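Re: that chain you flagged

S.,

Sorry for the slow reply, it's been a week of failed gels. I finally had a moment to sit down with the sequence you sent. For the record, here it is as I used it:
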Amino acid sequence: MSHNTIIHRIVRPAVRIAARTAITPNQITTVRLVSGIAAAVCLAEGTYGWMAIGGVVFVVSMLLDRADGELARQTGQMSVWGYRYDLASDCIASVATFVGLGIGLAATHGTAALWLGILAGVGIGTLFAELNVLNFADVRGYELSAGFTVDPDDAMILVPVLIWLGLAWPMTIAAAVITPSAAIILALLALRRRR
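Prediction finished late last night. Pasting the structure tokens below so you have them in one place:
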């Protein structure tokens, strides 16, 4: 993953200020995890108002996701444990987001929504494991122009945008198809390379 994405650039000024305080990267990771779960709880409420609030909390959580690593790099507080804690928090927050969406959408779309949310969450969790634990692939950001990189993980910013646009249901369906399919394809490609 890249460390110079557009979202990293957005959080950098705030991180420079945080670097002069006693705030640690792991504290930011903890707040990221709590806010990610809070976003999922809001999404699970199922009404548009709560889902819209969940989208806002999700954006804050996503910004914190970039801020923790940025603070670790700026202050020299990088550690293997911190890196693993960051990855686990990211995975839990992302999985919880789609499970929360499934729960929230079940009120209007039935139990299929719950299962699709769970399937999307499992797909995302599997992709996290394949990319960050099993190292099936090296994912790098795409440089749009000089100094403007977009990381594949940045696509998660579409989650709140689609929720705000009233497209949570089709997004959940798409995520339930795309993430497990991508995980299966990535696993098959990794097996093929090992032969």
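What I noticed first: The mean pLDDT is 90.

Talk soon,
D.
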